Input
Amino acid sequence: MKIIIGCDHAGPALKDVISAHLSEMGHEVIDFGVSEGEKIDYPLMGERVGDAIVAGEADFGVLICGTGLGISIAANKVPGIIAACVSEPTSARLAREHNGANIIAFGARIVGEELACDIVDAFFGATPLGDRHERRRAIFGEIEARHK
Ligand code: RB5
Output
């Protein structure tokens, strides 16, 4: 899969670990930064990666900030983005299976390297389930349409 990864200044070290892990798993990784020593306000990176996913530049996104919260909240402001902030693999799997998330987010101050790798493995190893889950996911789009 083609995956965009991005972080704010809290996340470059973990971003590099996850980026290498995803490449080892055979994914094509596009690094949107930032690098160590650079700074960016997390909402701008969330928007940047969200926009790129919606534009079809990649299939999925991975976002990292201090907590994973701010950057996922920002990404979720982009219509078409379903960003899930998680701190363990079960939620990561369910974010795909139930919620159809197209971005997974986590916090560099919350999860360690090994747990973060397990989170992305669970996320990218899962596929969205049908039936009631599909019907519920469709409501995301309906809510966006009601709030234009
Ligand atoms: C930046 O210091 C920090 O606020 C940010 O990385 C993130 O945790 C926000 O949600």
